[in-house]
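Narrative summary of target 7.
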Amino acid sequence: MYRIAGVLNVIGGWFFTAFSAFTAAAVFALIIYYGGFYAILGLVVVAIVLLVRSFVNHKNSQLVEKETEELKKAESNTIQGIIDESSENVAAVFKRSKRIYKNTLDGLISQDLNILKSSKKEANKLSGEIDGLRNNIFYLIRNLDEQHLGASKFYIEVLGNLQDISQSLDYISKSATTHIDNNHKSLKFTQIKDLKEIILRSHEVFAVSQTIFTKKDFGKLAEIITLKQELLGLIDQKIDKQVKRTKDTENSPKNTTLYFGLLLETRDLMNAAMNVVERYYTEYDAKRFED
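Modeled conformation, tokenized:
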């Protein structure tokens, strides 16, 4: 019954789309018929205005997104201020990591060199921004109040973890890009299937982490730690499966090396991300205990 209803809904959608298209075509035909040259000119002007408006809106939305993703130097002189400011950077890193990781592996699976090069460029940019934050540590420490110097240790450790994340993304993007650029064999169906599962689970971890850090809802950080353990268990399973495939059927050394490298680096990536989470969770727990 549900399948029949679904089919009818799809067919109904086709008819509605066709009816809408014919109606719109008839309206435009009538306008042109009665309005002649001026009607055509008016329609062209309207089309241009709509296109320009759409382009401007798209550019503005891109600028807003770029501003929200850009990593910012910490300027606070208290530990709570450092936690709040750095959490915004962590949220941005998780958001960008989610996109870079997914796009890289999608590009590898589809053998799309343009996507891979774009992801590699984005990974390099993220790495450069994190290096910029590390270069600002001296000025941060000088700016801190005496009673809040402990915040510098927290901030340095978080930046170290973020750098580990960027290094893992850099390795993954470079490896995938080099593999396709050198025309090596594509991944096997079973490898692609496994990678897609890991992409999905990694996306979930990054998405939940991003939301929590954006909202500064650190009481929910334990949820991410649970997701991380499940993901690491999944990665270990995929490594074991690939070991068995390599022993029994695999015949491409380059392919196998790439796949193992991706799995191992994904594990390092998740561990680095969770080190950030656990650092914040510890700090949050300590603050709650003090309160």
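Residues 130 and 163 are 6 Å apart (CA to CA).
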